Structures are given as C-alpha cells and as structure tokens.
Amino acid sequence: LLLMLLARGKLMSYLTFFIAVFALSLMTIWYASGDPDFAFYMIFSRAWELAAGSMIALVMRKTIIKPNNTLAMIGLTLVLASALLFDKSKDGAGLMLLIPVIGTALIILFSSKDNTLGKALSLKSVVFVGLISYSLYLWHIPLLVFYRYVLTAGQEFSLAFYLVALFAFSYLTWRFVEKPFRSRKKIGMSTLAASLVLITLPLLAFGVVGHKNGGFPDRSAFFEAMRVNNGYGIACNGNTTINDICSSSSEPTVAVLGNSHSMVFVQQLSNDTPTGVVQLTQDSCAVGYVDMIAGVSNLSCRSFFTDAVETIRNTPSIRRVVISSNFNKELSKQDYQASLTHLLNELEDREIVVFGPTPSAPHAIGECLWKAQLFGDNTGNECDFAPKQSHPHHVATLAAYFDQFEHVEFVDLTNYICQQGKCAMKVGSNNAMYTDASHLSYKGAEIVLSSYQKELSDNQQLTAQH
Fold this sequence. Notes:
alpha/beta; two-stranded antiparallel ribbon; 7 strands; about 5% strand; transmembrane helix; acyltransferase; transferase; acyltransferase activity; SGNH
C-alpha cells in the first residue's frame, strides 16, 4: 500500500524515502555486525534490499533507461562472483550483499532485448526459470528439509531427485496458484478474500490444537532428553577455574578435563561424587597443548589446557582427573602425541581415568530417532549401527599408548554401548544413548558410568576372593 501511494507522488519524494530506508538499513547492518543471525533474519537489516528493488521498479516506471551492455555484463560478473566466491558462513548477510544487489540492479536497469545479456535472458528456458523463480524460492528450503527427514538411516541424499521435485512443485504452484491469483478476470477480490479465510482458518485451528496439546505426544520429553550434554552448562565451556557455576564444591576431588567428549560425563559424575566435581573443558580442542586452529585468539587450546592443568596442580583436593575425547587428533601427529604425553606427565601425582572414544555412528542419533518417532516407528531399530571396522584398531592403539603411564587407567567404552556388534541407540520410550553421531546424552553417560562402576566393583570383589 505504501509503495502504491508513493508511486503516485513526485519522483524526488519516493526516491528520497527509499534512499533513507536504504541508508538506515545499511547502518543497522553495521551496528549488528557482531550478531550475524540478527543481521540475516531481521527486517531492519534486510530492508535496504527491498528498498533497492523498489527504487529500481519506481525509477523504471518514471524514466527511460538507455540499455548498456557493458554495465549489464558488469552486473552479471558481480552476481556470478558472489555465487562462486562468497564464504557462505560469513557473507550470507551484511555489507557484502551489496555486491550481488548492485549486480542485480545493473542487470535489470541496463539489459534489453537488443544487447548480449538481454538476448541471453530472453531465451525460453531462462524465461521459464524466471517465471517460476518465486515458487522456487518458496519451495527450496521446505522441500529440502522434508526430503532429508523422510530419508531413512543409510539412504543417501539425491540431488537429481531433489531438483526434479523442486522444479515440478514450483511449476505447479506457478501454474495453478500464481497465475490465477494474478488474473483479476479469473479471481475477483471477494473470491480471493474468501479463499484466504478458508485456507487460514484450518491452519489457525491446527496450530491452536497443537499448542494446547503440546504437539506430538512426548515431544517435550524427547527434546529434553536430547538436549546437548554440556555438563554443568554452556557457561562452563572454556572454564579453567573452580567457581560456583562450574564446580559442585569449593574443594572438588574430581576434575573433568578435555573437550566436548569429556563434558558429557560431568553431570553424572557430580551426582555420584558428593565430594565435588569441577568441569574444565573446551570443545573442539584435542587434549594437549597444541592449537588445532592456529591464529584464532578466541580458541587457544594451548592457553586453555595450560590454565586448566595449573588449576588442577594448585588444588590439593583434586585427586582424580577424568579425560575423554574421540582421540582422532591426539596420536595422529608427533607434536600432538608429544603434547598429550607432556600433559599426562605434568599430572603424574594424580589418578587419571581416560574414557576411550565412543563408537561413531553414521548418522545423527537424535535426529534419526525423532524421525522414526514422527513416522510411527517406535522401535528405532533403523538408528542402530555396528562399530566401524577401524574402531577396534583405534582403541587398541590408544590402550597401548596409555599403558605406558602407571598413573593412567584407560577404559574402553565399546562394550558398555554395543553388544554383539550392535550399538542399540534407543533407551526407553523417549531417550537415546547419543545426542548426535558420537556424544553421549545425559542418559547415555549415566548408563556408561554405571556399567564402568559395576565392572570396577566386580573386579575388586574378584581380586578380594583371590
């Protein structure tokens, strides 16, 4: 409505308005540069793109633009460069989007049927894609999400099938929804309004009923069980001190040291250790003094482990240190192994328990079980898996390495998780052993530690008998 009103006014009036919107929105991007998600999703930081398109449309209605093949080709170059060279993790929002937007503007303004780019864009195949482009835009994400959801464990994503389905749905939407709705002769305003009401009311009713009933049965319980196991919480990721948030005692007797594979044991160890457990973990770090990502100041693994080990050595109450990892890096290179050896030797006056790597699943377990539950499979058997052929060798290599340290006990977790070559992932009706492909859930950590403690108790009884 605002655009319609502005289109009736003077050129400078609406041009000034959209220039102001354009500038203010770009300023919002500048201020929101520290929060890329905000910059990507919020209208304040994306309004400049809409303003750019509006300015082009209104200017083209009021003035005659002389075609210019050079400027049009420059625009195409900018668009192609954006598609091929942009880093999707950094350039999806923000000022970098000026490049494809300016490129698109140049193409729209300066291409015509008389120049090279205009002729290329006038080809029937290109025009067809243009006609269904809005439907392509609307369908591409929902179709991608639902396609991945209906895939069962082990099935591969077919790009060809996805593209065929995407174009088919988009064409049907354009042909039977977009075209009729754009024709006032076929659909009058009263018919359009009535149709929208008839479509909206059932959707609203479905949403209200789902909200009142809590959605799918046991959905909340499942998602609660599948939340990421961060130990005491995400605030303790990177913690290197004993404090009220990341320690259950001011004088803890157990320290959990390592990365995200270590932190999964924190909560259950805390439940089993009344004398206190402190969490000293940093995800994405190999255990040791080597920075996995060189030059990244906010993820210095060397600094983290230096400070964490110093805390352990300066805290006499800590007698046991629990370490875990997938250990994909720690023994892979000489510098990593030397670093781990140095760390273990620095803690030679402590009892160290190393929990070995969990068998890695070929898919995300939480997502797999949720899909199974969503589609009526209450067994969850398709989410089970067998350990990789390389897993026993990996564990044996680790066991041989840690065996050289008298103060280190290495614990193979494989038999706690998998029996007879099968790793059953579903636990009860609304829980699982893993949350993703390798990290234990809260319940999974409870099962593993319970099995370890039982085995420890059985071995002690057997030793006492002899």
